[in-house]
Amino acid sequence: MLEDIKQILVPVDDSEHSKEAFRNAVEIARKAGAKVDVLSVVTDDYVFGDIRISESDKEKMKLRTLESLEKYVEYGKNRKFTDIRTFTTFGNPRREIAKIANEGDYQLVVIGATGKGAVSRALVGSVAEYTVRLSQIPVLVIK
Question: What is the pLDDT of residue 116?
Fold first, then answer.
């Protein structure tokens, strides 16, 4: 099975579970000779009264998010693993992760069991659970 894995998607939100998912994905990738894509989805539902966040503010948020993802690249470099790419997108994290997993050239998604938003997770459901249900490729959920 490992020889079939060439590209791994790892959605992160800076929670401990997502960091552990990333560390596991790196080890799997090293053994499989695969690459790792680290994804952070910036939620697009920032609304202040009736005013939506501006496109320029969205771009600034995207740049800050990309900067924060550099620690994942550094982690890989420290372990002599450099096949890590980071990217971000806007939208609903559950839908965006499932969409990217299904439309990308991935053979595996490695995701943390729970993220930062315990209250919102109780209201709208787990991102990991949603990914498992909608993904057309294998999903490894890390606790």
Answer: 57
Rounded CA-CA distance 110/54 in Å is 32
Three-state DSSP at 81 gives coil
12, 18 Cβ separation under 8 angstroms: yes
In the sheet with 139-142, reading across from the earlier edge strand, the strands are 84-90, 35-42, 7-11, 108-112, 139-142
As a whole number of angstroms, the distance between CA 38 and CA 101 comes to 12
Q: What are phi and psi of 133, to 5 degrees?
A: -70, -40
| Residues 6 or more apart in contact with residue 63 via CB below 8 angstroms | none
Series of mean pLDDT values for 10-residue runs along the chain (143 residues): 92 92 97 97 66 76 90 94 94 93 97 67 67 95 90
pLDDT of residue 124: 40
Instruction: Report the distance separating Cα 116 and Cα 37, nearest Å.
Output: 20
Residue 14 tokens, joined? 């800076």
Closest CA to 29 of 115, 88, 110: 110
The span from the CA of 86 to the CA of 38, in Å, is: 5
Please tell me the pTM assigned to this model: 0.87
